[in-house]
Design goal:
Blueprint lengths: L16 H33 L10 H5 L4 H23 L7 H27 L6 H36 L7 H9 L1 H5 L2 H11 L3 H15 L3 H16 L6 H21 L1
Helix pairs in contact: 1-3, 1-5, 3-4, 4-5, 6-9, 8-9, 9-10, 9-11, 10-11
């Protein structure tokens, strides 16, 4: 099993926030692959059989094929388990925790149960014909609980994402988070859409403000080339802005200030 790396000695929990965000979207992305494939398969079978999906009664082999056993294991072991550990490290205190941590814990437990239920179908499907009554009981339970559990996990991920959106702004000045978001961005998050989503919820000014914060952080740390790269990227974003607002002017002044400091540092 792949687990979340242990925190460094005296490492503030906020320094793991970037790992938490990337782990969340990695887990959500892999679950969505399984969920969408399941939904498409069930709808197709119901259409071909000419019945409502709720009335489907499939043999063990077909039920087992609705989910990919190895992918479900990867989702649990390599994505959701590390996500749960990171959530505990970043969000839990002695006597309280954030709502996001509760959602993540619920996702972990639901997928753990789903994995066991799926294994039961696979294992029972390989049993002897004399055990058909036992198999029928398992299949009856799975026909009822598979869709309920998958839809619940899908709903929990949506709730968790809404809570994450309300939470991430608190990390917008954390050095590790700021620099990781700039350097790793879409590659670590899985898509440019998620990157834009994250910038939009961390900073009122979106990516243009995020690049300015990163530029200042790199400059303060003596990483002049990275600071210059952040200034150049942010300037392009501002140049693409349709209207000139006080907020845009404020960002532009901030970039000019960092550029001047870089020039003096190079002199």
């Amino acid at each position: 099993m792949v687990t979340a790396p242990p925190p460094l000695l005296h490492d503030p929990p906020e320094n793991r926030a970037w790992d938490l965000v990337t782990a969340f979207f990695r887990a959500k992305r892999l679950f969505e692959v399984q969920y969408e494939a399941y939904e498409a398969t069930v709808k197709d079978i119901a259409r071909r059989q000419g019945v409502d999906r709720g009335a489907l009664q499939l043999p063990a082999r077909e039920v087992a094929a609705l989910l990919d056993f190895e992918q479900l294991g990867d989702l649990h072991d390599r994505c959701v388990a590390p996500l749960r550990e990171l959530s505990r490290q970043v969000l839990r205190e002695v006597a309280t925790t954030d709502l996001l941590d509760r959602y993540v814990a619920d996702i972990y437990h639901e997928i753990s149960i789903l994995r066991e239920e799926h294994y039961e179908v696979v294992a029972h499907g390989a049993r002897e014909p004399g055990e058909l009554e036992d198999l029928k009981q398992v299949l009856d339970e799975v026909h009822e609980y598979f869709p309920k559990r998958l839809h619940r996990v899908h709903h929990l991920f949506a709730q968790a994402e809404r809570r994450l959106a309300a939470l991430v702004a608190r990390f917008g000045r954390n050095t590790v988070f700021v620099r990781s978001m700039f350097l790793l961005g879409a590659e670590a998050l899985g898509s440019v859409e998620v990157q834009a989503w994250l910038y939009g919820h961390v900073y009122a000014g979106g990516a243009a403000e995020g690049d300015l914060v990163a530029a200042r952080s790199f400059l303060a740390g003596g990483f002049l080339d990275l600071a210059r790269t952040a200034v150049e990227r942010g300037a392009r974003l501002l140049g693409a802005a349709g209207s000139v607002t006080p907020a845009v002017e404020g960002l532009r002044a901030g970039y000019d200030e960092v550029a001047a400091q870089l020039a003096r540092a190079r002199a």
